[in-house]
Amino acid sequence: MRDVVIIGSGPAGWTAAIYAARAQLKPLVIASSVEAGGELMNTTEVENFPGFPEGVMGPDLMVKMQQQAERFGTEVLLDDVVAVELEGPVKRVVTGSGETFESRTVIIATGSAYRRLGLPDEDRLSGHGVSWCATCDGFFFRQKNIAVVGGGDSAMEEATFLTKFADKVTVIHRKDTLRASKIMQERAFSNDKIEFAWNKEVVGISGTEAVTGVTLRDTTDGSESHLDLDGLFIAIGNEPRVHLFHGQLELTEFGTIKVEGRSSKTSVPGVFAAGDVIDPTYRQAVTAAASGTVAALDAEHYLAALDQAQVSVTAAALQAAN
Ligand code: NDP
Predict the structure, then answer these.
(1) Is 133 a catalytic residue?
(2) What is the pLDDT of residue 321?
(3) What is the pTM for the complete model shown?
């Protein structure tokens, strides 16, 4: 039986692993079958992670976190978790390849997934002009006319990055002001290749084999218009990845896993959660990392209390026998 199984390999998962490994708990990180490292593997330069005055590329940061966790004895498994049983003293974590791991604690650091527009043609044209990842797909849009949906930091980052390839990038936003930070807004506003379609929402995506355009609805008067496009990047935020835990853990009104106060303690003893999966507000690499620390320390204290209780029970039994 293991002491700690960590599900997820973003900043929260790796930081939890670093702390748990240094506490000699020999954590196992189940890191996804596709690629370890979480959402930061899809970003470009991270400029706000302390300790990197020149910035650091997202994937480089994640590789360094993994190396740091492995240095202290973290085991890493490239597999997906497909089921969990969290109640009771022995937790079970089942992977896609059919292995079941038993553990006294589980730390959930599953992060969040790209939010979708929910349009019928969105999935059909995914990979054929519809994308959620500028770093992954931007290269295919050289000298093309594309759009980015959203008004947050992600949308500004994607739009700015995509101007390296595209001739023109239209930011489609449902309001007339952006949610993005001032610095990201200014970067986008000062870029000649970026235009803004304000107060517009995408209500249809056209194209048979590949995207050819979108239907926009004006959010102020409901009128509809068409915009010709070669590609549509969707950057409208994320949803916490909680599907494995429905019916087992309490969730919040935001759909994140509910934790007790500033701790990582979920509604089930021995199960802790950290990072974007518990955080509807801040969702930064550095806050996720800090949250991973909290989870590892909570798990460590929980295990120490269990061991202490076991010692007391054994001592009492010995005393009774004598
Ligand atoms: P946000 O939640 O901050 O922004 C989402 C944007 O998408 C909002 O403008 C929202 O509109 C819009 N939106 C949401 N749902 C829909 C929908 N169904 N249709 C149309 N538009 C929609 O998400 P981000 O991914 O931008 O950012 C998440 C976090 O990550 C933030 O804390 C951000 O600061 C951080 N981040 C930081 C970066 C950096 O510093 N380099 C880079 C990227 C992200 P509305 O405004 O109307 O709600």
Answers:
(1) yes
(2) 86
(3) 0.79
